[in-house]
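Aim 2 progress. For TraB/GumN family protein, the working sequence is reproduced below.
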Amino acid sequence: MKKFGKLIAPLALLLTSPACAQNAPAPVVRDADPALWVVKDADTTIYLFGTIHVLQPGMKWFDGGVKKAFDSSDQVVLEILTPDAETMQAIVKEKGFAHDGKALTERLPADKRAAYGKALASLGLPATAFDPLEPWFAATNLELIPLQKLGYDLSNGPEQIITKASNAAGKKLTALETAQQQLGFFDGLSMPAQIAFLSSTVDEMPTLEHSVTEMVDDWAKGDPDALGKLLNDDLTSSPEIEKVLLVDRNKNWAEWIDQRMKQPGVVFMAVGAGHLAGKNSVLVQLKAHHLTARRVKY
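Predicted structure tokens for this construct:
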């Protein structure tokens, strides 16, 4: 059971301290043409853009058809809008930390503790470093720290760039979920599902660089089928995680699109690319509303 971490929400990514981002390789300028879709009728247009929540510097994607769609919009919609620091700290304390006094290492099955300790040691951390955390939050940190060391910049994700561009252009900026809701999806997972999430992250750490490179390559060349297979196929081994983190949210977002189509205007909607790929994608869920998303060629 792998790749759960690739569905980590954009807000969860922002929770990891950037202190470990050091000795990063020099950025390489690279052009990308990620996939873009559109749903439209006589007076409403909604562009659907799939993001990779964290990228290395040098990736040129906010141009061409994506930028044209963004520029034409009067409303921009993201998964979440990051709250102020004080509010964020309160949510993290509530959702990301354990409140029953039980250390994370005590929650892990005995046969998983050695691999978990080795994973922490590979990052220069003691085995008890994440003991106060809930398993899902430990998994987030465990994945993001090595990515930062590989040069992936949390301030360089598409959501951050789109947010800055929206504010600069004075566009209406809204969100599909609140910070409380999004972290609540992770914290609301059963403890066995959270442990599976963490164990999966530990198992894939040795191949993390390769799998993330493959994921970014598929995104950059606009290959949603390959990206969906990489991101979502293994979720079927945990029906709970698949339902909570993927299927239910995709259904909710399809419903949001259906309701928004009743109002005139142009919307640029950016969500994690995994939500726009595969058999349970937002694009598929739109069919229940008699809506069709068309791939934009650019």
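The chain has one domain: 4-18+28-295. This observation will guide construct design in the next reporting period.
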